[in-house]
Structures are given as structure tokens and as C-alpha cells.
């Protein structure tokens, strides 16, 4: 039995995606100034981003049936789009 | 007008030559993603309109337009996933944007050697993420009944006068909470310590609050492992065992992966 289940084949929660694409510094200002540090990166305040996500979660909680399923559907569709794109790409 | 450059990541030039980039839409949903040569590597980028995606505009968008944020985060995610499936990839974080192509080159130039080494390391390895959640009730009851610290406190209280006993009893609750946190952390540290033996590198991240995860249980652990591919299978098997072993105590172990090497591209 295959024990492996890859990210692409699973429903990944938005939080998991944000967790990796925003890195470890969820409370540290300026952590979005990325690893390849340079003065010229456009600066995006991480706290702003976090509070936006909080709002998103709250909205989802206040209207769970509509928003959460919508959210999941979008994610799933977008994820599967990405998968099929690469599968259908001619070699 | 100057164009901003959104950087998704770096791939080896040789791989890009053998397998040219397929058509993908960029961050603005209109222009296409393309590559820019940087030494032996290709930077995967797209152009952005300077006015529409200025620092200020980005701040405002992320603050006020949740749909936008969600859409863009997902765009970043599956663009990276798409690249990851086809190439050895150094993935960049969300919204890594340079003011111009020249600036991108300037910043990348001194890091070139380091990045090439990183690409070599990434080639044979995978990144996995473990999040541990805990349904506190069970463990709390266990601590309340069996903890020696709590037991000693209870005994001490039972010898007090009834009036004082009332107030001291209240302290028991916070003592139990304290012991609970300690115990949870010990268990997680323990799991991590064992799992990390399979990895060439591991890192512990911050936990997300319940508001953020939208879950009933508290997140009590969040860690990342960088594994050599031949070790992944046994790592997963061990994880499965741990999942079962700790389910009784109210722990949920959630493993996701393989992720692009966001945390171990080593470009700090």
C-alpha cells in the first residue's frame, strides 16, 4: 500500500499554504523580506497579511456553509487545474 | 514606465533548456511567466505594472481585499508546485518583487555560488511539514489525576482551613494548565527528536492560533524536515506509527508534503 500522499493529491488547507509561502516568521515584522535579501524588494508588512488572514477565517466562521465550501472548491479546482496543466503539457 | 519583476524561483539552466517552460500566467493574471538567465540558472519571473503593484498598493490590497490575497497566495502556490514537478527548484516566498531586472541581477550575482550549491542539495531531497494538534481534555484529566506535582498541591491544600482551601483550590486549575502545556511540549519535543533523526535538516516553526487555523484543537507543534529521498519512506512509516500511538492521548499529527524546499534553500 502506498504510504505516500503528495501535496498535489490532497486537499491542502489555505493555512498550510500560507504557512509555507510566508515562512516561519508569522509574527516577525519584515520577514517577507525574503532570503535573498536586497534593498530593492518591495516591502510587505507581514502583520498586515496575518490580520487579513484572520479576517478571512472569521468571515468563513460567520458564514460557514457558503464560504468554506466555496473556498475549498476554489482551492481544489485551482490545484487540480495546475495538475492537469502539467499532465497535458506535450513533452 | 518601469516594470517590477516578481520572482518565483530559480531552476538549473540545463533543465530549462531540455524542458522549456510551459505557458503560465503571471501574478497579474495577464502577462506570461518567463525566465531570465542568471549564471548557470534561470530565474522564473513575471513582469508587474509598477503602479498597480507598488508597495503601497500591495499593502492596501492585502489589508482590504481578502479574496485578492487568497487568490494570489494560491496563484503563487500552484505556480511553484507546477515548477517543482518539472524542475529542481529554489522556491521564493510569496511576493518577492524587485524594482527592475537590473536590480534582480545585482542582488542575485553575489549569491550565485551559494544558490548553485543549494540546487545540488535540493535535487535529492524533499521537504515535509508536521503540524501537531491536541484535544486537551484527555491529557488534562490524566494530569489532574496522575501528576505528582498536582497531587502534592492537592495534598497540601487538604490540610488547610476550609476558608483558605477555597482560594487555594482555584490555583490548582492554573497549575494543571501549566503542567498540561509542559506535558504537551515534552511529547512534541520527543516526537520531533525522533523524526528529526531521519532528516538532514529540521526546523521548528511557530504555532498558529485557533483563529488562524479555524480548528477546535490547539496547534502545539509545527516543524519542517528536509529528507534525503531514500529516507522518506521510513520517515513516513515512523510518522504513521506515531500518529496511532498518540491518538489515544488526543493528539492529531498532520503531515503534508513533499513541499518545494521553501525552508532549506539555504539562502539566508
From TrEMBL, chain A:
Belongs to the gas vesicle GvpA family. This is Gas vesicle protein. Signal peptide: none annotated. It is found in: Gas vesicle. Residues 74-91 have a biased composition (Basic and acidic residues). Pfam families: Gas_vesicle (PF00741). GO terms for molecular function: structural molecule activity.
UniProtKB/TrEMBL annotation, chain B:
The keyword Transcription regulation does not apply. GO terms for cellular component: gas vesicle. The keyword Acetylation does not apply. Pfam families: GvpL_GvpF. GO terms for biological process: gas vesicle organization. It is found in: Gas vesicle. Keywords: Gas vesicle. PANTHER family: PROTEIN GVPL 2. Belongs to the gas vesicle GvpF/GvpL family. This is GvpL/GvpF family gas vesicle protein.
